[in-house]
Design goal:
Layout: H1 2-8, H2 15-25, H3 30-38, H4 55-76, H5 82-96, H6 98-123, H7 130-181, H8 185-190, H9 193-203, H10 205-213, H11 216-235, H12 238-283, H13 285-291, H14 294-343, H15 350-392, E1 415-416, E2 419-423, E3 426-430, E4 433-434, H16 440-449, E5 457-458, E6 465-468, E7 477-478, H17 479-484, H18 491-500, H19 504-509, E8 517-518, H20 527-540, E9 545-549, H21 557-571, E10 577-581, E11 592-597, E12 600-605, H22 607-613, H23 617-622, E13 633-637, H24 685-695, H25 698-741, H26 752-798, H27 802-806, H28 809-851, H29 856-900, H30 902-907, H31 911-960, H32 967-1008, E14 1032-1040, E15 1047-1056, E16 1061-1066, H33 1072-1080, E17 1086-1091, E18 1094-1095, H34 1101-1105, E19 1108-1111, H35 1122-1126, H36 1134-1143, H37 1147-1152, H38 1170-1184, E20 1188-1192, H39 1200-1213, E21 1218-1222, H40 1226-1229, E22 1234-1239, E23 1242-1247, H41 1249-1254, H42 1259-1266, H43 1269-1285, H44 1300-1308
Parallel strand pairs: 6-9, 9-10, 16-21, 16-22, 19-20, 20-21
Antiparallel strand pairs: 1-4, 2-3, 3-5, 7-8, 10-13, 11-12, 11-13, 14-15, 14-17, 17-18, 22-23
Length: about 1300
């Protein structure tokens, strides 16, 4: 393969030798096709990317020019021009390619001249004139040769231009990603992940398209001038009439192009919107299902989609008109030219007719297709370049090289308070601007990291920072690669870190150990595991200063303590570290405590100083409930403090390690991410039928087919009539002279009215049928896209949650963006194009055969070779195409995961490594793209070669049969054969394209047929006021997430009495979250669950889920107004909403927003802190006023005050409800009525807390002891207190005994 690399780094002198060697035969591709024919191609079969196509090299080259331009522009006080940079970078090699275009277009003009001379021989046919015959053979050879040369130059040109396009695209992507890594937080607010992904997926693709047509901007006019000259010689001034029509057609086409790009940009905005909504739906699908909110969301998506489709429909009609006018153009031109010619009193002859027809068709393509395309693509590219430029000019974060000053202006909405901290003997006076909605602690860290620019004050950081974020971030890859994060592996250190971060045991449980693959956004890990991996990553780095943002909140008390002692005060004991925490029991170990409240520093000092100074802080410690607004504490410790922590562990504020991805813990069976299905083999006819039937019913389809044939017939008849007319005229010319000699009246003339009339009629028919079929087809195909999207979306909404656990978000979104995009725009156009061309090819062959019947004999082997070639090529090409789309996915998922972990990546200074990974992914994609380019050229060259053979046979065939053919039919056959040239290979390529695009249809259809969960509503509707009491009974319930998955709840029997508050505890993986999943039927449980005596599995899912409220573990907000977030169905009045907000103390926050309730939240509510989002979820529950409330360890990232607020609200607002709390902080549930202790999916114990604590071997007792001595005493005390204050009901709980079946369970229990 080396030879190819050498040839490809071409210098301009070796250009021609290269062309002849490399492109015409592409011999080096043959082995690849052989492999592809035998088996499916894999990534390893692809050729390595050429050094000059490497992402990094191209990107850096363009980047340096761009940086230069930005600096220069700043000097000249103007905005930088990206277009200028692009031109500067690529104009040289691109300009050279213009030579090819020139050669190609010159030949196109000369060929009709040869053709005319050849036809003239037949007109003046004289069997005895041998000289004329030899000359005619010369002309035939000329026609054949020019066909061959055309075949070669055309593909050479195309290959190299597309490669230039690829280089531009790759370089831009590199720059976009590089930019994304250094966006400032202000800039992040101005753009969204969806938008950046869209830049990478859609906008840069314009470069691939624009390079193809650009040269025609200057070749077009030149060629038109040449043709005009030749036509003048041939038919005199009449040619001006035809040219006038062409000139009129050009601006109309350009206008179409303009309109089209206008629609395009509107559509793009709507598409962005739809994909963003989809992104939220897919990410928040669990919540949407539990809230039974599918309907408002589907309404939302359908609305956006409807707008989008109406725009797409309009642009499709434009396209249809464009295509039809393109087909009709030549007909109109020839018609007008000859009408004028005949009316001026000239007689027509075959050679004139067909030279004219050929010349027009030569120039027509350039003028009506390439030239306008160039204009259209240029304007589209300018829009894209502008979008990219806007992105590239966003603010960047100021790189603080530690030890340097760092100053940058922040947007004005910021309050600035005074905050002084002495830290590591460096006096840091910091004015920390805090956006009103963030934890001040996190803001402090972010300003230290340099993420939060500050106005005044000086922030000096000396030394390397490392950072563990509050919301743990993992990127796709192995666990080991997540911890090492680019550092070398030192086994001892690595083991030490794993032990300190309590990951040792987890690694043993996972099948592949630390080489287990983490799915998208860490799907395979639980929340606690993610948090620990996140911490381990920070610890493993050898840095000087450690910033830890609440790393202990996502783990339970025991693990939290382990992390604090072994890791934070263990491994790191000699390093300065700043720990943000809500867990006051750790404060004694700190050397210095900062208490922050709303961005102010309230107090500072050591633990004992603060206790002495009598800040409210101590009351905080005594009992969290009585404490004032407990601000989080910023603690920091330098030297190890050996002091037993357990004396003063007030509240173990942590979450059990269970995460939202509940159940995935029990599925550590290999990487859970399922391989993306890459369907193999050909596309069946069935799929086409499905596709078309989605768009229209059978009758319409039959009508469409008829129209297609009618249009084609009219098309050929029109040309045939001209030939017939010319033939009649010639007979007349030959015989007419005889009439005069006999002295009879004047020469006979053909009846002009008759011939012209029929000619005009046929032209009209061609026009009408042509336009009708085009528009109708587009209508059908766009409707098909619409109905398939709706079906796919509905099926996604109805599929069980499990589907989203095993399919990464990117894959589902890919179906909605890339594949639906294909169905909307590309597929209808290609499909229509293919059908029209296919009919035309059949027409050409039919015409040729009618003139020289035995041309069918050599056609047979040609057709056989062709069919073989097509199968051979498609086998490989389809794989190449598929590889191209599968190698594209990593580029996107890498981008979106990088955007999520932006702070971490920057704190670790890992930008360069991520950039390199991105470049590697890009190069992989370039390999497949390059293959795609070369393979398609390999095929096209061979096809055009076959066409050249066909033209040669026709030309020489006519000469050999010179006695039997008329000049008119020769002209018809030859001028048609010549048009086969580009058309045939284009048609075949389009047919392959259609098949390739049908894979998108196939993927969409695959998602329309997902298994769906139980129906949302069934015949059996529960009574409207159900559940009035809120009694939940589990009767022998077993539960697993999938049919083949492990059973996570085993044969569970339990009963939750009305109005009872039940805490559910258990170690990680005990099945706490699974209990909720079973209750909500996120997967169908076995056994029976009754609520107020109604069997839940019999009623519809919406009926069930709307009657239970849940406060989820991960608070999810959706983009949209605050009102939509609280009440998507608009069921409540404003008053209700405000009251709910008042109850969760968010009223003031919402009132401060610019449009209050109507304020549109940023992407996924990121302008609220985690605690506030949690409160919004609580407000939703308050609004729903259901009898049953489930709380899923919602207090993971919430400071004590918010937590207390939530607890208080729950106690007051939900006094009348049955409340199940999945707990991780025992103090929240110690005063529950009963506690359910789960262990490995079974009930270990279920009783009042006090009673459970009497059993000293029980799990619950042990859990209480683990919380620390002081805490344990307090817990025992509260349990006892609660026990004594309760009035003992009789065994059959209150009047419920009346309901017979429940008593049975009571006794059974």
């Amino acid at each position: 393969f080396i030879s190819m690399t050498d040839q490809n780094s071409f210098s301009h002198s070796s250009l021609l030798s290269l062309c002849s060697r490399n492109m015409v035969s592409n011999i080096w591709l043959n082995p690849l096709f052989r492999i592809g024919y035998k088996r499916r191609l894999e990534e390893d079969d692809m050729y390595k990317v050429l050094p000059e196509d490497g992402s990094e090299r191209l990107g850096e080259e363009l980047q340096s020019l761009w940086d230069h331009e930005v600096q220069k522009a700043a000097k000249d006080l103007r905005t930088p021009k990206l277009t200028k940079v692009l031109i500067k970078c690529y104009w040289k090699p691109y300009a050279v390619l213009g030579i090819f275009t020139l050669i190609e277009e010159v030949i196109k003009v000369i060929q009709p001249v040869f053709l005319g001379k050849l036809i003239q021989y037949f007109e003046k046919y004289d069997p005895d004139n041998m000289d004329a015959l030899y000359e005619a053979f010369g002309y035939a050879a000329g026609v054949s040769l020019s066909t061959l040369i055309l075949a070669i130059t055309h593909h050479l040109y195309f290959f190299h231009v597309q490669r230039t396009g690829m280089k531009m695209r790759v370089a831009m992507c590199h720059m976009i990603y590089k930019k994304a890594l250094c966006l400032s937080s202000a800039a992040m607010g101005k753009t969204t992940t969806g938008q950046i992904v869209n830049l990478l997926s859609n906008d840069v693709n314009k470069f691939d398209e624009v390079t193809i047509f650009l040269h025609f901007l200057w070749v077009g006019p030149l060629q038109a001038a040449a043709v005009l000259g030749l036509l003048w010689v041939e038919i005199g001034p009449s040619c001006l009439a035809g040219m006038a029509v062409l000139v009129i057609l050009m601006p109309t086409q350009t206008m179409f192009g303009r309109l089209f790009s206008k629609f395009r940009s509107k559509t793009a905005a709507l598409t962005d919107n739809r994909i963003r909504t989809m992104n939220e739906v897919v990410s928040g699908i669990r919540i949407i299902k539990m809230y039974a909110w599918e309907k408002p969301f589907s309404a939302l998506v359908n609305e956006v989609r409807r707008k989008e489709i109406s725009k797409i429909m309009s642009s499709s009609y434009l396209r249809g008109l464009n295509m039809a006018s393109f087909f009709a153009a030549s007909k109109i031109i020839v018609f007008i030219t000859f009408t004028v010619y005949v009316l001026l009193g000239n007689t027509i002859s075959a050679s004139r007719v067909f030279v004219t027809v050929s010349l027009y068709s030569a120039v027509r393509l350039t003028v009506t297709l390439f030239f306008p395309s160039a204009v259209e693509k240029l304007s589209e590219t300018r829009i894209s370049v502008r979008r990219i430029k806007t992105f590239l000019l966003l603010d960047e974060i100021v790189k603080s090289n530690h030890g340097f000053l760092q100053e940058e202006k922040q947007e004005p909405s910021v309050e600035i308070q005074d905050l002084i901290c002495y830290w590591d003997k460096v006096n840091v006076q910091l004015l920390s601007p805090v956006p009103p909605s963030h934890f001040p602690q996190s803001s402090l860290l972010s300003s230290i990291l340099g993420e939060l620019p500050h106005d005044k004050g000086v922030l000096k950081v000396k030394g390397q920072l490392t950072y563990a974020s509050q919301q743990p971030w993992v990127f796709p890859g192995t666990i080991r690669s997540n911890i090492l994060f680019g550092k070398e592996l030192h086994p001892q250190k690595y083991e030490k870190v794993l032990r300190a971060c309590a990951l040792k045991r987890d690694m043993e449980l996972l099948p592949e150990g630390d080489l287990t693959l983490i799915g998208d956004r860490g799907a395979t890990l639980s929340g606690g595991q993610k948090a620990r991996v996140n911490l381990a990553r920070a610890v493993y780095q050898d840095a000087d200063i450690y910033l830890l943002d609440d790393p202990l909140s996502a783990v339970d008390a025991e693990v939290g303590r382990h992390l604090f002692e072994q890791c934070i005060c263990g491994i790191l004991k000699n390093k300065p570290r700043i720990l943000v925490t809500h867990q006051l029991q750790y404060l004694q170990a700190a050397n210095q405590i900062l208490v922050l409240k709303e961005g102010h520093m309230v107090a500072r000092g050591t633990y004992s100083e603060l206790q002495r100074s009598g800040v409210d802080f101590t009351s905080l410690l005594k009992r969290e409930e009585e404490g004032p607004q407990a601000p989080g504490a910023e603690t920091e410790s330098r030297s190890p403090r050996s002091r037993t922590l357990s004396q003063n562990s007030v509240v173990s504020h942590t979450s059990s390690i269970r995460s939202v991805k509940d159940g995935t813990e029990q599925l550590p069976v290999g990487p859970t991410v399922v391989e993306e299905s890459r369907s193999e083999g050909t596309i069946g006819v069935g799929l086409y039928v499905k596709y078309l039937k989605a768009g229209a019913n059978i009758l319409v389809l039959i009508g469409v087919v008829l129209l297609q044939f009618l249009a084609q017939a009219a098309y050929i008849l029109q040309d045939w009539w001209l030939a017939y007319w010319a033939g009649e005229q010639e007979k007349l010319n030959v015989n007419g002279t005889v009439t005069v000699q006999n002295g009879v009246n004047v020469t006979e003339e053909l009846s002009l009215d008759f011939y012209l009339g029929i000619y005009a009629g046929l032209t009209g028919a061609t026009l009408i049928f042509g336009f009708a079929r085009s528009l109708l087809m587009f209508n059908v195909l766009v409707k098909a896209a619409q109905s398939l999207h709706n079906r796919m979306f509905n099926s996604i909404l109805r599929t069980p949650v499990r589907f989203f656990d095993i399919n990464p978000i990117g894959r589902v979104l890919n179906r909605f963006s890339k594949d639906i995009g294909q169905l909307d725009a590309a597929l209808p156009w290609t499909f229509v194009d293919f059908i029209q061309i296919f009919l035309q090819i059949i027409g050409v062959i039919a015409v040729a055969a009618s003139v020289i019947p035995w041309i069918l004999i050599p056609l047979v082997p040609l057709v056989i070779v062709f069919l073989f070639l097509r199968r051979y090529f498609l086998q490989t090409s389809r794989d190449v195409k598929r590889l191209e789309s599968t190698t594209r996915s990593p580029v996107f998922s890498h981008l979106s995961s990088s955007l999520q972990g932006l702070w971490t990546i920057r704190a670790f200074r890992a930008e360069e490594r991520f950039q390199n990974t991105f470049d590697t992914y890009q190069d992989l994609h370039s390999e497949s793209w390059f293959l795609f380019l070369v393979t398609s050229r390999w095929f096209a060259v061979r096809l055009d070669g076959m066409c050249a053979v066909f033209v040669t046979i026709t030309a020489f065939g006519c000469l050999l049969l010179r006695d039997q053919v008329e000049a008119g039919s020769v002209g018809l056959a030859l001028s048609y054969a010549v048009t086969l040239m580009g058309m045939f290979q284009w048609g075949v390529r389009q047919s392959a394209e259609v098949e390739n695009m049908m894979t998108s249809v196939e993927r969409v259809v695959e998602y329309t047929e997902l298994e769906s969960e139980a129906p949302w509503e069934t015949q059996k509707r529960p009574p409207p006021e159900w559940p009035s009491q809120g009694l939940i009974t589990f009767d022998r319930v077993s539960f697993s997430y999938s049919s083949d998955g492990p059973v996570v709840l085993k044969d569970m029997k339990a009963m939750f009495r009305p109005k009872e508050k039940v805490g559910i505890v258990g170690r990680t993986g005990a099945g706490k979250s699974s209990l909720v999943s079973a209750l909500f039927r996120l997967a169908e449980p076995e056994g029976r669950i009754y609520i107020d005596g109604v069997l839940t599995s019999e009623i519809g899912l919406h009926d069930l889920r709307q009657k239970m409220s849940i406060i989820p573990q991960d608070p999810v907000l959706f983009t949209g107004t605050m009102r939509k977030n609280l009440d998507p169905f608009s069921q409540h009045t404003d008053e209700d909403l405000w009251n709910a907000l008042q109850e969760v103390q968010l009223k003031s926050v919402v009132e401060e927003l610019p449009n209050k309730m109507e304020t549109v939240l940023a992407e996924s509510g990121s302008n609220f802190s985690v605690g506030q989002r949690q409160l919004v979820c609580l407000a939703r529950a308050v609004l729903r006023k259901n009898r049953i409330l489930i709380i899923d360890e919602a207090t993971a990232n919430v400071d004590p005050r918010t937590d207390e607020l939530i607890q208080k609200t729950i106690r007051e607002k939900f006094r009348e409800c049955t409340v199940l709390t999945i707990a991780h902080r025992l103090n929240t549930i110690i005063d529950s009525d009963r506690i359910l202790v789960l262990d490995a999916g079974q009930i270990h114990a279920y009783d009042e807390p006090h009673t459970l604590l009497q059993n000293h071997d029980g799990i619950f007792f042990k859990m209480v002891q683990q919380a620390g001595r002081q805490e344990a005493v307090a817990l025992l005390q509260s349990a006892k207190q609660a026990y004594n204050s309760r009035s003992r009901p009789s065994t059959t709980n209150g009047g419920v005994g009346a309901d017979g079946n429940l008593v049975i369970f009571e006794t059974a229990l």
